[in-house]
# Entry
Amino acid sequence: MRISEAMMIASAIETSDKKVWEAIVTLIEAAKKQEPVKPVPIKYEPLIRHGWEYGCPACEKAVGFNKYAVEYTDNDPFCPSCGRKLDWGDWSEE
# Structure
């Protein structure tokens, strides 16, 4: 079963138990973060001037390699700010 299918089924569960509902919502939010998304090119000029090229589409924070901090940055598989899984695909070789 795919994550999207499981999320759809879980969101259709009806319950009056607040704790159960909070658990379902938490699981859905966690599952959403596991679906990889492609980083987006940054358009904010101050971040570009400071060496960033890409941002997380979920939280819009700078992610990936920074050309001025080579020893500290890399194209990480997850956003360090929100935890969203990132799909670097072809960009990893750039």
Remarks:
- The radius of gyration is 17 Å.
- Residues 3-34 form one domain.
- The beta strands are 40-41, 52-55, 62-66.
- The CA atoms of residues 14 and 20 lie 10 Å apart.
